[in-house]
Amino acid sequence: MSIEGPEIGTTAKRRRRVPEVARREALVSARRLLITSGPTAVTLKAVGDEIGVTHANLIHHFGSAAGLQSALMESMVRDLTDALGAAVEQLRSNPGAPRALVDAVFDAFDQGGAGRLAAWIALSGDLQHLEPVRAAVRDLVDAICETFAAEGEQTHHRVTSAVLFIALYAFGDAVIGAPLRDMLDREDDAGRKIVARLLPTFLF
Amino acid sequence: MSIEGPEIGTTAKRRRRVPEVARREALVSARRLLITSGPTAVTLKAVGDEIGVTHANLIHHFGSAAGLQSALMESMVRDLTDALGAAVEQLRSNPGAPRALVDAVFDAFDQGGAGRLAAWIALSGDLQHLEPVRAAVRDLVDAICETFAAEGEQTHHRVTSAVLFIALYAFGDAVIGAPLRDMLDREDDAGRKIVARLLPTFLF
DNA sequence: GACGATATCTACATGCATGTAAGTTACATT
DNA sequence: AATGTAACTTACATGCATGTAGATATCGTC
To answer: Which of chain A's residues have a Cβ under 8 Å away from the Cβ of B120?
Structure first.
């Protein structure tokens, strides 16, 4: 079984994509590789093989291997900030549902791959790629502050504690949650339950 | 300024180490490289340069590059389990001091590099290296259960929740705590304070 | 249908991490 | 002091990831 084109030995017909499509396909593949096989698996050759282009073509589109990595980080960070924004909206429309907020953040870190991405960024030291997250985090803090507008100073402190709490926990759960829960014989959503139960202690 | 031997151009005198010393020096250097510069910085050449031997010599001692990595993981996992064991002892001798327990676990993940190590292991998929941690975690659970021996079934559930809570949080804090706290304008030990405050809600 | 822009490929070059083989030297033992 | 073990080095080989240059094919446009 061959993953190549229609025939082997004959010159397979080229598929010509507009640059945006080529970049998008490459980033989807790169993200899949990052999530399933780790950072070292995200090579020009591996990504190229997955989408049926050569590594030279990826350099043409992204400038360099580092360019592809940066684009991947940007793309995943954008998804994370979008997810946080959605969580904010969800909170505004339906406050007092901690589990929904928790699920939104946990899913972003877990399914979206943001957890593995953040770990990769932190380990490799490319912290500048996290900068766009700063604004998203501040928006999240502001939104929660508005929703639970009680006393001024104390509220901000409590809310930043809550955000720090849920973000760190969701990150940890996404990266090493599975093996840890296995060691403790705990169910898959044990972490989410704990966070959902404790979150109100920050906000009320 | 040269990091080489006494002179350049002349054959520097060789330093011959017993294998245990050579391995220990290499692992110390490898750990430093892992913590400061990330997993990709841990190469045979980089470690060799730091301790003044050739990369071939490291292969002689560890068998292969993968052997060095495994030994590094083993060494760091042992330190982590030791730290957890010490935390257990501390808890037995002085129960009711959550901040001390929290500090012990957080320091293990942060200063000891266990956080970055665990992230590396999780990202690269070498989960079998975490197996020795399983026993340490179970010991920790048992120790806490004995200390807070109330009703049977409920206690075990609460304690595993507490361990999951503190471990995931300490891990997250060690890996991405610094940039997150910076985004939120929070103090360095904000995470520890939060965990120390919430931990009693699991145990009492 | 011819043409131009460029997406894509082939072929080659380079650097690095790893691994191997064989020689060299330090140190303990005698 | 002679000797053997093995820690250590040098020299070479290999594979992979990245990068470059030039040729080729595809598609929109005229």
So the answer is: 123
Q: Which of B39, B118, B179 sits opposite A176 (nearest CB)?
A: B118
Nearest one of A144, A150, A165 to B201, comparing CA atoms: A165
The answer to whether the CB atoms of A38 and B172 lie below 8 A apart is no
Give B74-100 pLDDT, tens digit per residue: 999 899 889 888 888 887 888 777 788
Q: Which residue matches tokens 């999951």? A: B164
Is B37's CB within 8 Å of A125's CB? yes
Chain B residue with CA closest to A134: the answer is B183
Residues with pLDDT less than 70, chain B: 1-12, 149-153, 204
Place of tokens 């490799």: A124
Mark yes or no for CB contact B194/A40 under 8 Å: no
Q: Reduce the DSSP state of residue B149 to 3 states and report it.
A: coil
* pLDDT band for position A3 (cuts 50, 70, 90): very low
| C1’ C3 / CA A51, Å | 30
Residue A163 and residue B184 in contact, taking contact as beta carbons nearer than 8 Å: yes
* d(C-alpha B60, C-alpha B112), whole Å: 27
